[in-house]
Amino acid sequence: MSVFEELQEVIPGGVNSPFRSFGQVGGTPPVLARGLGSRVWDVEGREYLDLLCAWGPLVLGHSHPLITRAVREALEDGTIFGAPTTWELELARLVRRCYPSMEKVRFVNSGAEAVASALRVARAATGRSRILKFEGNYHGHVECLDAAGEEADEIGGALALGASPALTAETLVARYNSLDSVREHELDRVAAVILEPVTGSMGVIAPDPGFLEGLRTLCLRHGCLLIFDEVLCGFRVALGGAQERYRVTPDLTCLGKALAGGLAVGAFGGRRELMDLLAPVGTVYQAGTFCGNPLTVRAALAALKAYSQPGFYARLESLTERLAGLRELGITYQAVGSLFSLGFGPPRLRDERDTAQLDRDRYARFFHGMLARGVYLPPSTGDAACVSAAHTLEEMDRVLEAASEVLAGKDSRT
């Protein structure tokens, strides 16, 4: 029995997050044992160039010295106190410097926690219950969001997903990059409009010119809050995320993944009067024993200091620009910052309906061909791949060469 088969005996599907399965591409995922820099190794000793980067957090690559040193020091000083620390103060100030819209910030343990908490703040601030989201935007394990829309209905609706139909009924769905689809809803009854300003689960899609600005205007006009879920694109498309790149200021921001360079973390923040609705100042309850723990916070301090070095993001972007040569091979390639996505279908993706046209079977064959050549990509078409500071231009050229071989039908053993 293989290690993965043993995992399936004790863990549903053999994975602790469904993204990790190879359900869309078929086959058995490698069981990983070690990571260093831009590479990972499985339990059988096979080496892979990692372009998954743990689905986003590893902006610095695996086992970066700054992160490992920060974690080691935190282990020696104490990993959790359940009390305020000076490290939280330093990190909150750094986050505010990167994201000026986050005048006050609360640290949590995941992006999903950040989103769930931000929605509570929005409802309390507006006295409204409805939330408007967009097709294909992923906001984590938040039942009122992931159980709404056509895809959820096709699976069987809220109850089939283990969600509350009542909460789901108050979740409205619009089409990404379409202001007209937003105007179709009664925004005067909506607490917040939430979106990934740069998407990552339906292909890496940038907002059309005027789309984010239009949302900002509509929210102001109708008294609802604008929430940027930058869990994936935060610290990935710029130091200050999509709001820095596109110069649009949300009311609330959710961060995660990349904030701590590989440790479990989330954060949400916004204007002072909104964040002061949280207990113990206000009435919106949010709590967590591990929120702001020193292990994570000190890793985040190290990560943000590395991200802040001159030229850091220009170099990351040059790596993804090198991969633009994939388009010449007939691949649907889209990139923003250090995020990119691959597929076979429309030459340009603007929303979930474009993504639905991607050829999953062809991507599955491509994925396994690349894996056989030691290149680890997301095991599902449309999901974001990533580069890290540990990658090199020479490695990007290797990816281009491997892709050319796969599409030419060359045997990986030759």
Description:
The chain has 414 residues and is of the alpha/beta class. The protein is 37% helix and 15% strand. Strand 8, helix 11 and strand 9 form a beta-alpha-beta unit. The longest helix is centred in the first third of the chain and has 16 residues, at 111-126. It is globular and about 60 Å long.
Spans of at least 5 consecutive residues with low confidence: none
Number of helical stretches of at least 4 residues: 17
Taken as a percent bin, the fraction of beta residues is 5-15%
Give the biggest sheet: 7 strands, mixed
| Mean pLDDT score | 94
Quickly give the structural class.
alpha/beta
The count of β-strands is 14
Strand order of the largest sheet: 4-10-9-8-7-5-6
Instruction: Describe the global form.
Output: globular
Helix content: 25-40%
**Alpha-carbon distance between the two ends:** 30 Å
**Estimated radius of gyration:** 21 Å
